[in-house]
Amino acid sequence: MAAAPGRGGIHRDGRAAYLFLAPALLFFCVFLVLPFLFAVVLAFSDWGGFDLGTIEFAGVSNFADVLRFDGSFVRPILVNTLLFAVGSVTLATFGSVLVAYCIDRLSFQGFWRVLYFLPVVATVVAIGNVWKMMYQPAGLINGVLNKLGVNSIGFLSDSSYALPAVTVVHAWASIGGAVLILTAGLKAIPEMYYEAAEVDGANSWRMFWQITLPLLRPSLLFVLITQFIGGLQSFALIIVMTTDGGPVNSTNVAAFEMYQQAFKFGAWGTASAMAMVLFVIILAITLLQLWIARRRGEETS
């Protein structure tokens, strides 16, 4: 029988573990913890973004300006952000579930997964510019509509269509990553459940609704949370596909407004206050999703 390691050996193993973790912990502190703490300080300060000695304490005035109901951040920027996130999450989730379910029943599954994952590894600038050309009055989409007898639509020039148009692009670009997660979740479902349901005479829709979706809940929850966080933080597509969040501020979202306040107007305190508000919203929505999922899991168990 092997002797148990002594106390000195345990301490040596602990020091070795911390030594190996040190680079990751250092990276985490320098690039995540310290910037977050600095953003919290700036949220209660006035700073132009150049000299650290000019930071002046402003109290909660930045938050008061940001959260004014008649201000531009709450309406329409925060409303646009929530609409953009909800729309992209809905489209991406339904699309990824459908695609993953189909891929799971096709041959050459690796090829199809790679094909749908390509938009994830493509740059946002490339994706935005390609779709921007497709949305043009003389672009591919309007060309198809004209062939069907529908007049050209100003997808990016009409305030009624601009936000939905960008939302569709974001959802399309997000499907690939969700498909990989959901296909892995589908592979983890034991085949015996489907065989037993088939023996009982269940059709494909009944098996999908009563077997696939309940057992896919952990993967779906992860996809919903990550997609929603990505939707609330997204702003690169807005920069590429629109002109300063236009037309008429219809595509201006919270992350893009933070970028403008900090780098265009030099209002770093206002931008940091917006970031803190968005952080609280993301945290609250994430906790709500986890609570709903846990409650449904308890009800079905």
From TrEMBL:
Membrane topology: Multi-pass membrane protein
Membrane-traversing stretches: 17-44, 77-102, 114-131, 161-182, 220-241, 265-292
InterPro entries, A to Z: ABC_transporter_permease, MetI-like, MetI-like_sf
Any one of the GO BP annotations: transmembrane transport
Cellular component GO terms held in the UniProt record: plasma membrane
Residues annotated as domain ABC transmembrane type-1: 78-289
Matching PROSITE patterns: ABC_TM1 (PS50928)
Subcellular location: Cell membrane
Major subcellular site: membrane
Annotated Pfam families: BPD_transp_1
Transferase in keyword set: no
UniProt keyword annotation of Protein transport present: no
Keywords attached to this entry: Cell membrane, Membrane, Sugar transport, Transmembrane, Transmembrane helix, Transport
Family, as annotated: Belongs to the binding-protein-dependent transport system permease family.
Protein's UniProt name: Multiple sugar transport system permease protein
Protein's organism: Kribbella amoyensis
